[in-house]
Amino acid sequence: MEKLLLSTAYLPNIQYFRAVYQNEEVLIEGYESFPKQSFRNRTEILSDHGRMSLSIPLIKVNSKQLTKDIKISYTENWQPKHWHSIVSAYNSSPYFEYFREDFEKFFLKKYDFLLDFNTEILNTALNILNIKRQINFTSDYIFSGTEGFNDLRGEIHPKRQQKKGINYYDTEVYPQVFDSRLNFEENLSIIDLIFNLGQEAINYLKK
Hints:
Helix content: 25-40%
Distance between the termini: 21 Å
Mean pLDDT: 95
Largest sheet: 4 strands, parallel
Oligomer: single chain
Number of domains: 1
Strand content: 5-15%
């Protein structure tokens, strides 16, 4: 059986979680040269104005820095801003208050390393969804095309067009907060699914 190979991600999207759900062994890459403009430090939620991107600022990244060594910058005081955006977006969703504390804590505590921050959020969401997976990490860089790996490190990407049925991507509609006046937005952060569907979100990932 192939191992699922993923990049780390900030509040990962639905496609990411569907991939984790459908694979028994999951590895997260820490030894890549950190690429910019990816979901590693970026997530997408649904605000009352439509799709919104939230990005974690990082301490200066150069082309030789490994993902495992990337540190978060707090000079911009981004945590309260991100949490305010999440509250504004989901405060009226059916399950926001139920799961609020599970996610709010990540915006009250400072983490040195992006990988640690992302991993704790990932494990929290997996617990909410009752997905039992042991998340492991690479001990060295795994080259693209290496046998035995289902490599999605570069596939789940904000600038790569996805098609239904490819790499766990799906566009099936579910209720969203602003669906009375906004079109459905697919493949947002997992929090969009959790705050709107609660623990029934796992059934969406099974499809």
